Amino acid sequence: MSKTDGMTKILGTALRIGALGLLIYAVIASGRFTDLIKGPGFGFVLLAGAALSLTGFSASEIVSAFKHAGGAPGRIADLETSRYFWEAAARNMYMFGILGTSISFIIGLGSSEGGLGGISLRMISALLSTLYGMILGVVCYVPAMKLSGRLDTAGGNAKSTESAPAFRPPDSRLRFENVLGYVLVLVILAWTMASSLPSISTDSPLQPVEVFLHWPSLLIVLGGTIVLLLFMGREAIGRSLTLSFAFTGLIGSIAGMIQTMLAFAGRSIEEVAASMVFLLSCCFLGLTGMMLLGAPLEDRALKYRSGPPRVVSTRVAWLLFPLLTLLFLLVTFVLVITPMKKVA
Amino acid sequence: MNRNNGRKEAVDRLLRETLRDDLPVEVERRMKARFDRCRKEIEDEHPGKSASRTFRPNSIRLPVFRWLPQSGLAAAGIFLIILGGLLQEGGSSHVLAKNISRMRTWVLVKDQVALSESMTCRIERIQEGEKKAGYVIKWLPPDHTRIDLIDARGKTVRTIWMIQGDFTVIDHATGEVASAVDLERAAGPYLSAAAGFIHPARLAERLYEEWLETTREIRGECEQRTYRLHPPGKAEEAVEMTVNMCEWLPVSVSLAVPSDPSGAHRAAELLLRFEWNTPVSGEEMLPAVLHRRSNG
Fold it and tell me: For B228-256, how does the pLDDT look when each residue is reduced to its tens digit (9 = 90+)?
C-alpha cells in the first residue's frame, strides 16, 4: 500500500467516525430521544463488555483486531482470531445489555421508592440496557462480517500473500490483561449493583447482597452446573461451563415460571412473589455464570480455530438464553402489574 | 441362498485380508517414530504444553477437576440442588419477594376499588381518647355521594349531597336547604382532611403512594394487613391502611389531623371504616327536594 493510499484510508475512516459522531450529537441535542438516553446504562454495557473481551484475548490480539478491522493486512490465522474477537465482543455487548436489564429490573423491584408508578418506571427503563447492548453488539459485529468477507476472498485468492492457517492449540495461559479483565468486570458489576440501590432507597437502604443473593436459586444453579459439567466431561471446559450455566439457568427459570403460574391460579400473593424471585434470580445467575466463567475460557479455547463452523451448541446458548431471560423479565413485569381475578 | 449375501462375504474377506493388523515390525516402528517426531515438533513450538493436551482440540482444563474426586463433586452438586429446592419450597423470605408481594397487593386493591359497586365509609373523630362528631359517607357510581354529619350523641345534624360537582346541604335542625361551593365550608375541616379517601377514585390515586407493611392479623377467615402509606418522600404525611386480603379491599384508614399548619401537633385522629358493595338505596342518594321534583 502506498503512502497516499494509507493517508486516504485514514482520512476516510476519520470522516466516517466524525459523521457518526455528529449524527449521535444531533440526536442527543434534538431532545426527542431523552427517554432513550441513560448514561449509566450505556456506560455499564460498554465498559463491562470491553472488560470481558480482555479476559479472553491478549493485548496484542486486541490491537491486531482493531488494525484488521481498519483494513490492515495479516495472516489468515490472525484474521481468523480477529474475526473471533469481534464476534466475541458483539456477544459480550449483547449479553451485558441483557444482564444490565436484569440488574436494573431486580433493583427496580428492590425498592418501593416512588410507589407503584416509580417501580413501573424503573422496570420499563431497565429495558434501555438491552437496547444499548443490541446497538453496541451490532457495531462490534460489523468488523466481524467485514473480516469474514476478507477471509473468504483470501481463501480462494491465489495471489494472496497470506499463508494457510496453521494448527494452533487452545490458549490456556492467563496473561496480565486477562486478569485485569476479570478484575474490571467484577469491579464494574459490584459497583453497579452497590451504587444503584442506595440512590433509589432513601428511607431504608438495601444491601446489594440481600437483593441479589437468593440462596435457593444460587444453590440450584451451582449444583446443577457441577452435575452437568461432570456429565459433559472435562474436555472442553469453557463450552461445558457455558452450556451448564445456560441449561441450569433455563431449567430453574422455567420451574420458576411454572411455580408462578400455579401460585397465580391459587391466588397466593406470597407464593407468586417467591416464585418470581426464584425465576429472576435463576436468569441472573445463569447469565452471570455464562459470562464470567464460560465466556473467557471458551474464547481462549476457540479463538485459534480456523474455518467458519464454530461450536453451534454454545452459540445457540449465547443467543437464546439471554433472549429467554428478556422474555421472562417481561412476563414477570406483566404478571406483577396484572390483577388476579376473584373467584366467585 | 441369496446371491447378494455371497458377494458381500467375498468383500468382507477381501477387507479382512487388506486391513489385517499385522504390519511388519519395521513399518510399525517407522510409523511410530514419525508420530513421535510430529508430537515433539508441536511441543517444541508451544513449550509448556504436553502433546496429549495439545492434540485435544478446544480443551482448557480447570485444576479443580484434578484435585477433587468426581464422585465427591457429583454428591456435592446433587446435595446443593436438593438443598436449594428445599429452601425454595420452605418459602425462604427475600427482600424482593416482600416488595413484589406489596406491589401485587397495591395492584389488587386498586383493581377491586375500581370495580366496586358501592362504598360506605364511616369516619370517627377521636380526640383525647374520646369519640367526637363523625361522618357517614355513601357513594354510588358514577358520581353520587351523600355525607351525613353526626354529632357526638350520634344524631345526624346535616346532610350533604355531592352530585357531579354540585353540593346540596340540608340542615336537619332548621330544615334549611342550601347549596355550597366547597366541601370544607359545607362539612368542616375534619372531612377535608379525609377527603383523599372518601371517593373510590381518590382512594385509588392514594394507592400509588409508598407502602410499608406494619402488622398482620387473622380476622375470621381472612388475613388483614396494615400498611403505612405516604406520598413519595413525605413520611410525615403517613396514614395507616388496613386491607382485607380475601377481598383485597381497604377495611380502615387511620390518619392524624394536625392542629397547626406545620403539622407538628396532632389535634385529632380520624378513623375511616369502609364497607364495600353493600346495598345502598338510590332514594337516599338524591336530596329530598330533587327526589320529590324527579317524582313529579
Answer: 888 877 777 888 899 988 888 999 998 88
Sites in chain A below the pLDDT cut of 50: 158-164, 202, 344
- B91/A270 CB distance under 8 A: yes
d(CA A252, CA A234): 23
| Mutant choice from A112, A281, A334 vs B, greatest count of B C-beta within 10 A | A112
pLDDT at residue B114, rounded to an integer: 86
* Model pTM above 0.95: no
CA pair distance A330, A27, nearest whole angstrom: 28
Stretch B1-15: mean pLDDT, rounded?
66
Signed CA dihedral, B41, B46, B47, B49: sign only: negative
Q: What is the DSSP letter of B251?
A: E
Domains in chain B, CATH or no CATH each = 13-84 (no CATH), 99-294 (2.50.20.20)
Name the residue ranges covered by the structural domains of chain A. 38-154+167-337
**Nearest residue, CB atoms, A273 vs list B101, B108, B112:** B101
Q: Is the dihedral of CA A309, A312, A314, A320 positive or negative?
A: positive
Question: Distances in Å between the alpha carbon of B154 and those of B120, B132, B133, B151, B189?
Answer: 17, 9, 8, 5, 19
Which helix (H) or strand (E) covers residue A13, if one does?
Answer: helix A3-30
pLDDT in tens, B132-191: 668 888 888 877 888 888 887 778 888 888 877 778 888 887 877 777 666 666 667 677
Option in A169, A215, A234 nearest B46 (CB): A169
Residues of A in contact with B102 (CB under 8 A): 112
From A25, A271, A42, A21, select the one nearest A136 (Cα to Cα): A42
Q: Is residue B219 helix, strand or coil? A: strand
Exposed, middle or buried: residue A212 (CB in 10 Å: 0-12, 13-18, 19+)? buried
Q: In what order do the strands lie in the sheet with B210-219?
A: B177-180, B166-171, B156-163, B144-150, B130-140, B119-127, B266-276, B249-258, B239-244, B222-230, B210-219
Task: Give the ipTM of the model, two decimals please.
Answer: 0.79
